[in-house]
Design a protein that fits this description.
By secondary structure, the chain is α+β, with helices and mostly antiparallel strands. 55% of the residues lie in helices and 7% in strands. Pfam families: RAB3A-like_C, Sec2p.
């Protein structure tokens, strides 16, 4: 509104100035001076003609009529301007209303999406809770079953301790060593069976004749302080990692030389299978030799005669009476080995079996007794490396 007033005032001033610039007859002066604040000229007191007076009066009336028409024109223009401003304001207001309506729709849509998202989150949370409860129930059931299996295994371990772990050089278990039993109680077995490398004395086949009782020899023993210290350090945290000082010495002095055969590539595979407990030693039946199966590739295998198997040993490469064969892992390859090679492999397997028992916590003996048992197993590896082995091999 203030702007409209200023526009009307400016138009009025322009019109008045135009009128003041026009030539007038006589000495007529405009009613309102164009310049405010300036000193007015003195009135002209000279006597005028009556004819001049009529003419000046008509001019004055003409100027008044012009001024009135200009004022009307200004009012009309002002009215038009106000109408345009009103129309523009109404248009802007309409746009604002449309924008507000659009924003209201967007807000309603967002609120609806938020409600749907909240509902889906609650549903997902309930679903996760139900799944967690189901898994918890299943886990508790498995835990109960596992505890039952643990109790059963503990009972079996307790029974095995009396058979395996109590067998020491000073007090051997006669049930595990049939050669120590009396001739009347000797056990004879026929045929052959599959035995993993964890088996120790049960790998060999029983002889067809009873073995006389051999008295246990009395030996003088003295603990080596360095070896015993290394064993005690290993016993604190048992591991099968060959980098520890205890096993590193045994690998260097016993295991490595004992499994160092002529065929070096196969020797490395045999050592890896023994360490991984995947080596199988099987006796070969002598009575009737079966036909070689296509699924089993026999390396250094039988020569086909119905007699004692004389063939090349797969490890030493020498022609020997091979009464056993080995298989590495789950492969179908069989390797025939001589009694000497079998004795060396068996000695190493017995050593790894015992230290695995210690690592699993199955040996409940004094530290010194465990140390002497390991020394006995090392002695067996050394004797086998030098070529000494039992006739039962």
């Amino acid at each position: 509104m203030h702007r409209l007033q200023e526009v009307n005032q400016a138009q009025f001033e322009d019109t008045r100035q135009q009128l003041s610039k026009q030539s007038v007859v006589g000495q007529w002066k405009p009613l309102a001076p164009s310049n405010r604040g300036q000193e007015l000229p003195p009135p002209d007191l000279s006597v005028k003609d009556p004819g001049d007076g009529d003419e000046s009066q008509s001019m004055a009336q003409l100027n008044v009529s012009r001024l009135r028409s200009s004022s009307v024109e200004i009012r009309e223009k002002g009215s038009e301007f106000l109408k345009e401003e009103l129309h523009r304001a109404q248009k802007e207001l309409k746009l604002k209303d449309e924008e507000c309506e659009r924003l209201s729709k967007v807000r309603e849509q967002l609120e609806q999406e938020l409600e749907e998202l909240t509902a889906s989150l609650f549903e997902e949370a309930h679903k996760m809770v139900r799944e967690a409860n189901t898994k918890q129930a299943a886990s508790e059931k498995q835990l109960r079953e596992a505890r039952g299996k643990i109790d059963m295994l503990q009972a079996e371990v307790t029974a095995l301790k009396t058979l395996v772990i109590t067998s020491t050089p000073s007090s051997p278990n006669r049930e595990l060593h049939p050669q120590l039993q009396s001739p009347s109680k000797a056990v004879f077995r026929k045929g052959h069976g599959r035995n993993k490398s964890t088996s120790s004395a049960g790998i060999t086949t029983a002889s067809s004749q009873s073995t006389p009782v051999e008295p246990v020899s009395t030996e003088f023993k003295e603990v080596d302080s360095i070896l015993f210290a290394e064993f005690q350090a290993w016993k604190e945290s048992p591991t099968l990692d060959k980098s520890c000082s205890f096993l590193e010495r045994i690998y260097r002095e016993d295991v490595g030389p004992c499994l160092d055969f002529t065929k070096h590539e196969l020797s490395a595979l045999v050592q890896a299978a023994v360490e991984q407990n995947t080596l199988t030693i099987e006796p070969v039946a002598i009575q009737t030799l079966p036909v070689v199966k296509a699924s089993a590739i026999e390396c250094g295998g039988p020569n086909g005669f119905r007699s004692q198997i004389v063939t090349k040993c797969a490890l030493s490469g020498l022609s020997r009476a091979c009464r056993h064969r080995i298989k590495l892992g789950d492969s179908g390859n069989y390797y025939y080995i001589s009694p000497s090679c079998r004795a060396r492999i068996t000695a190493v397997c017995n050593f790894f079996t015992y230290i695995r028992y210690i690592q699993q916590g199955l040996v409940r003996q004094d530290v010194e007794l465990m140390y002497w048992e390991i020394m006995r197993l090392r002695k067996e590896m050394s004797m086998a490396k030098l070529g000494f082995y039992s006739s039962e091999m």
